[in-house]
Amino acid sequence: MKKRHPLLWIIPLILLLLLVPFVVPSALPYAGAEGADLPVFTRVELANPHPENSLLPMPSAKDPDPSPYLPHADGFVYDEATGAAWEYRDGTLYIKIERRRFENATVSFTWVQIAEPGQLRTHVSRETNPIREAKKIGAVLAINGDWYSGRPNIGVIYRNGVQMRNPRNFDNYDMLVIDDEGDFHIICRPDTKMESFAPYEGSILHSFLFGPALVVDGQMQVITDNNYGSGPGMGLMKSAQRQAICQMDKLTYLIVTVEGPDGSLNNGGYTVPELAQLCYDMGAINAYNLDGGNSASLILNNTKMNRFGKGGPREVTDLLYFITAEPAPVPTDTPVPETEVPAAAETQAP
Fold this sequence. Notes:
Helices cover 10% and strands 29% of the residues. The chain is mainly beta.
């Protein structure tokens, strides 16, 4: 009988193993969409879906950060083990944070549902502690923005409906536009003639120039070093702490915050292509990469919810944040004022 060569079955096995990452989603760093413990969010019914103000007063030069209503103290749900809030709910706003530990990193999934577009707003400041700024502006939830002051000579930037600068130089960066309906529009490498802005003129509340785009109109983007005008210096292929914001539905958003790298916690972080894959698998309509590294900040109830990587926290110059659109309820258990009890009438002995 003819003896079989052992390599005849070893070679096909090796080829099959090499193909697994390309054909099996579970080969992704977070264990992939198939079989992964990805959170699922179901929209809630807000008790006050149509608040009195159809669009809340937006910040202006005279009133840079009007926060008509502060967070409701009884709206937060706290974790008994850590003491930190992980959920918030009132009649106009719902927020829920879920954490997952995947193979390479810990990821926070933050769901946000608002009643009207004015609850999503932006804040610009000098470089400062993001927690301090979030508290000052009355944010229920806040995240870092796009390093607003770091590139003052590029990008048409809007904050709260006000055009902050207008240089028609984009350096090939992708742009996120949020309109006055709270909808996301991503412009990949805007043209200097501003033709790509024409559909949104007069309705832009916020715009960001950082990126790259991760998901556009439901299509995952192909990420290479050339997605940024600055090229490989931006570290798209480096595993790092990341932050992305996604639109999932009408006035419903998802913030994806990736921790790491931190050797003590065995967090390796994500590359931008890995982040794009995760946002796509979560079902994002549009997803956009914001400033990462130690600028990535996820702040709920004036508490930072994500861990920094090596090097410690970094001050930021701008925030994207959410506020409530209704006043806090007046406590119903109002104590009754004490009144003087009349003295008992004296009785005369018989």
